[in-house]
Structures are given as C-alpha cells and as structure tokens.
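Input (structure):
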C-alpha cells in the first residue's frame, strides 16, 4: 500500500503526463476508435465546470461516410481558407501584435519547416492547411456547437470542456487536434449534420491514434516562462 504522499505524487504524475503529452497531432493512423471509448471520453469531459451547471456544449461525432461528406462539402465549396468569412465569431484579432505575432509566426514556421515547406511555398502551405478538413486522416471527426443565445461565460466553460476531451483522450492512448478552421464553414457543415440555426459552430476536433512516422508530428511548440505572464501578489 502506498502512503498518502506517495499516492498524491503518483496521481500528480499521471495527470501531468496526460496534460503535457497533449498536443495537436496532424497525421493519424486509420485505426478506428470504438464508440464505447468515445462515449467514455465525452462522459468524463462533461465533468468540466460550467456556470450554474448549464453545460453549454453540444457535440456531433462523425465517422465514415458522414465525416467524408463534411470534408467534401468544404473542399468542394470553392472557398479558400484565407477567404472564408468568420461571420459567426472572430477567433483572431484583425491585426496581430506582440507578443502574439511572434508566437504565431514561430508556430507556423516551425510546423511548415518540419514538413519541408519553405516560407514562400504558398500552394504547399494551403494544401497542408486543407488537411484540416479531412481531420488529418483521423477516423473520428467531431464538430462542436453552442447555442448562440448564450454569452461569453459559456464560451469559457466550453474551453474547459474541450480541454477535458483532449486530456481524457491521452489517458486512453489517443491524440487529438482541435480545429477552429471548421468554424467559418458552418454553412457547408450545417446541412450534413442538420445543425439548427440557433447553434454556432465553435470548432472541430480530430480524434485517433497518432501516426508517429509523419514529420509533422515531430514538431513541438514551446511555452513562455512563468515570469512573462504570472504576477504573485501578497
């Protein structure tokens, strides 16, 4: 039997490993994830806190033909990602500024560099971005929506729910990639999933087993040191 401190240390190590090992995987194996596992992940994730327990999340889990129909609807729409209209909500500012501009650039250059795409190879960048819309070949693609009548607080709650999904997936040896790229294509997604007008498409998420043979999955992002963003006050 472990003593109390040993149990605490072990529990902390398990939780921290799930959090730290979570990352945006951009190449998946075709191995299917069974519905029981998906249900277990979503059930655990739904323990996320929400104001007055409103639980504002709604999830559409897609596989096979339906997932392919979503991909086809977007890729055949003729709407390039850089021209897509963010008319439901704005994810990024109109003008990036520091320190966020440098972080964004480092992320983009690092990812494209890992897969051998140069800074001026725009067509290759677009092709890589379009892989969002096939969920990076993951066998499971999820679309998340929220009632448009809710306010910003529910969107904060939603973020905690999404994080719970990604961490719970790691506990089962799975990986994910959260994908805001789906949001401006809500007109293409709605008819496929019969999403009602009162629901805003928040994002998508790929779920599956990592293909560790792909160079894009070797890319790792860094994090700013605590000194850059934490203030301790007594």
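Output (sequence):
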């Amino acid at each position: 039997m472990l003593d109390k401190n040993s149990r605490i240390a072990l529990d902390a190590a398990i939780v921290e490993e799930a959090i730290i090992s979570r990352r945006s995987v951009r190449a998946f194996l075709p191995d299917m994830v069974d519905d029981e596992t998906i249900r277990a992940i979503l059930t655990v994730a739904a323990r996320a806190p929400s104001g007055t327990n409103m639980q504002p999340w709604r999830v559409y889990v897609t596989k096979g033909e339906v997932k392919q129909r979503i991909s086809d609807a977007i890729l055949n729409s003729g709407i390039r990602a850089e021209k897509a209209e963010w008319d439901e909500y704005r994810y990024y500012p109109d003008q990036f500024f520091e320190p966020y501009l440098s972080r964004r650039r480092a992320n983009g250059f690092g990812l494209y560099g890992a897969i051998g795409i140069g800074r001026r190879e725009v067509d290759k960048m677009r092709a890589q971005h379009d892989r969002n819309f096939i969920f990076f070949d993951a066998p499971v693609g999820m679309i998340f929506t929220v009632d448009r009548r809710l306010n910003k607080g529910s969107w904060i709650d939603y973020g905690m729910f999404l994080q719970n999904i990604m961490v719970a997936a790691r506990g089962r040896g799975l990986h994910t990639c959260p994908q805001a790229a789906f949001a401006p294509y809500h007109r293409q997604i709605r008819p496929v999933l019969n999403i009602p007008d009162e629901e805003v498409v928040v994002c998508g998420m790929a779920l599956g087993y990592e293909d560790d043979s792909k160079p894009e999955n070797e890319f790792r992002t860094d994090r700013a040191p605590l000194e850059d963003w934490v203030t301790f006050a007594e």
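Notes: The mean pLDDT is 96. Helices lie at 4-21, 35-45, 64-75, 100-114, 122-130, 152-170, 186-193.
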